User: Fold these one by one.
Assistant:
Number 1:
Amino acid sequence: MVRATDDGRTGTTSLRVGVVDSGLCNLGSVMHAVRCLGAEPVRLEGPAGIAACDKLLLPGVGTFGQGMENLGRRGFVGPLEEAVLGRGTAILGICLGMQLFASLGTEKGTFPGLGWIPGRVERLRTDLRLPHMGWNEVRFRAETPLRQEAIDGADFYFVHSYAFGCDDPGHMAATTVYGAAFASVVRRDNIHGVQFHPEKSHRAGLHLLHRFLYADRDSVDVGSGPVVEQVLTNALSDDRKVHGPRRLPGP
């Protein structure tokens, strides 16, 4: 249960959020964002501890093949499948982490993915400069626990050259345009993915992470009411606040 304290911050009785360490990114910003929102981040350097987590985050940067290789070498694939597909634990993939949910990736070869959301990860089809790096608008097109009025149409921070092409358009929860439209949010049941970096996207990113953490729990207000706004203001103004990149000019 999430509850508000007198200063508007949230407390939680037991929300443990496992952050999968695939060895492909710095987890500090992600873990700090989770902590700012009142949950307990647990760094998972191996599969031990997955079963004790209420929610899972799979961040990642780099290439698809390396991401899958690292997950396999560290023993994550089977235990993650047991948690996500077997027990229904909610997971949020971030950037490369989202792409690994696909059936296969085509970056520097063809590699099988986790296959949790049928589709292919292919190079962005655009005449604009790659990588797509900077702030861009995210428009939701389907209902998802991550969706709320406060962030629909907001800008989020992207760094990528490949995009997730869903076999089933119903799994494409939000789109972004960079020369052409691509899936910036995907969802299948308890499996959620975002192509952007919410931990680097300031207020909009914290809103989205807050939705992922608490939308299915007994809470004071997981939408955009005053309690959440105060929590986000506190998180952003804290001396140890989450720092995102400054707004960058377009390509």
Number 2:
Amino acid sequence: MKFALAFGNYGHIEVIPLVATKFDNCECILLYVLEAAVVWKSGEQVKLEEIQVDPPKATEVRIKMICASLCHTDISVCNGFPLFFMNPRNTSYNETHIHFILSTLHQPLFPRIPGHEGVGTIESVGENVTEVKEGDVVMPLYLGECGECLNCKSGKTNLCLTYPIRFNGLMPDGTSRMSIGGEKIYHHFNCSTWSEYIVIDSNYVVKVDPRMELPHASFLACGFTTGYGAAWKEVDVKKDSTVAVLGLGAVGLGVLEGARMRGAARIIGVDLNDMKREKGDAFGMTEFINPADSKGKSVSDLLKEVTGGLGVDYCFECTGVVSMFDEAVEASKMVSIFCTSDFIGTLYIKGLGTVVLIGANQSSGVVKFIPLLLGRTVKGSIYGGVRPQSDIPTIIDKCINRVLSSFNLFTFREIQLDELLTHKVSFHEIDKAFAHFKQPDCVKVLIKF
């Protein structure tokens, strides 16, 4: 990493190499000149580039990244996903804007630095930062939690209205803290963890217990927590229930763990990759189905076969494949029909099946309405319904705490994340991360700075 001094104000900055530490009668700003993985156009590979990272403004922190990881969403980002409405007034987005955003002309955000999973140490803080300090180990996240807005107080959602997901790739003030050759670089949401240093609003970071293994903390920043929270928090899987998980990547494995923690009796994993069977077993899966071995049967038919024709209580769709939505719905229990004694009186119909959509995809498709009308519940989930400040510390504790096994023979962590890590690369070999990610035995790739 190099250093530079910027003279003037943020509106017009001239950058020169840092050759002195004091200048008379001149206001100067310390910039960092460092390397980051930048994607310039949709479909292109990331390139390591020297970029400038500004110092943190008020309520912001600058983080020295220790490690990051690769998520399917990062690959989608390199391919132009997501496309978001460019808000000329730089106002924050919240749930009331979603329909407008999705129905308006969009454009990809390039150049951009991907990455939304990672962990690092705070190098410097801006004014009015009180919850964290220099030297703290933190996870940068793509959503925050104020605890005071309507959504936070409801206890029903983790989508904070004060600190929402930054869809426009910019900081809350509508600007970026990263540039290259004077050109603005967009953030991935507000994270961009594939950079040696990042700047982020302090309301989007969570402190990490120093006892936590740092690679595991990186995995908690998105994938695994998204799945775990969906079962643990979003729908609160009931004891002795039957659960199906479509797709056994990091998100799906998180669902398995969450369902196990909730006491599900049957946890059925579904994946086209037989290598995921062993991984699924490590996270509590009780049964495995590979649709490729089914001679053309649909996923929903396969799940009904192993549940006596009833379907499952909970079906978690983790692939993002559009056609799997209907399969997930039809694989869930339809209705319970019962009457008064001797079948005389009122007929009651009660829906039992719950479908949780987790996999991200910007494509649209045709939805079959009749299966939905027959009493099922469909729920979407962002980050598994997990609240950054209220819930992440609890999950971290479960990753640290050790409990006794049956018959007190040994101890193990409540949540064991070792099986997620399959590959490691250095930051300067980040192109290899994409190659590893395509391998059938890959779950998570750790990027070490």
Number 3:
Amino acid sequence: MIRFFVTILFLCVSSIECNLENFAKVSVDNKVFYVSREKVTFLAALRNCQEHGLVPATVDSYTENKALLSSGCLAAASGQTTTGTYLWLGYLKIQNVVHNLNTLLVPTYTNFEPGQPDKWEEFCVEMECSDGEWHDNYCDRKYNYVCQEPGKGTELPSESTG
């Protein structure tokens, strides 16, 4: 009996999913997204991802964006209409250039609405759930957010030793 309990405890401590009851899991291709059901500021979203052993989510393709739009947004809106629902993504705008927050590189895929990003004082990036388009926005707004499991494509580039 004690061995069984210790095994279950170990599995739960080593598994990301044990502490994610406030998230909806969205799998697409080889990536797993965790969409929050709570609304927080961008900074709180980053902290919450880290506290769960995750990293801020970045979207690498149309397929991933579409999956977040359909399944992720619906989960964030708790099954209600997705109009007025937004998701913080793992990008930050520095000197009017958007960067992947995990790698600090300029992303190869984006889905910004035409004319976006548009304001120097809006540094954070969100996805609007009514259409899946991205916008720069003020970081103190409270939105749902998306995390992902760390892995390929989320590491900082290594310094070259040349």
Number 4:
Amino acid sequence: MHTKNMDSTHSSDTTTTTTTLSHSNSSTSQSPASPPAQYGMVNNAPIVVLSPCAACKILRRRCVDKCVLAPYFPPTEPQKFTTAHRVFGASNIIKLLQELPESQRADAVSSMVYEANARIRDPVYGCAGTICQLQKQVSDLQAQLARAQAELVNTQAQHANLVTLICMEMAQLQQQQQQQDQQQQQQQQLLAMSDIFQNDWLFTEEACQGSIWDEPLWV
């Protein structure tokens, strides 16, 4: 009787073990090979976000279906969350994103990442130091622009003065040329008049000589 009870117990345990193994094998075969996808909104545009996100991977926690960090920290950019988490902390990032509407969250994440990078480069001033450097560069460029504009005005004034002097010299040369032309014309006129006077004198002299010899010596 005791032997029969032992056999029945052993057979029931074997059946239970076989059923458990078959159930575990079926559940293992039905598990997905790739992580599930989530859906988020960035700039009012729906995007498909792979899970788990970089934030949940770094924090070593399970990435839920509506993870607030997943749309902005994809698994392909882990350094992005690492930098922001190093400066602000995960709890502050999550709190800030939860307080903002979805249309502003992407810009907020970009600002936090930029500020974190600046704070890592310059722990004292952060973005303020970068802004001061850019303002100094702007001031220097404005000063250079003012100097260049002043030099341009001076160059234009010198060019105008040079053009004026050239015009005055050309006018003087034209006047001198006109005066020379007038003198040459006057000289030519004088020469022509002297030739006319000389011809008239010769003609008069010949006429006088001819009239004297033509008259008889004795009447």
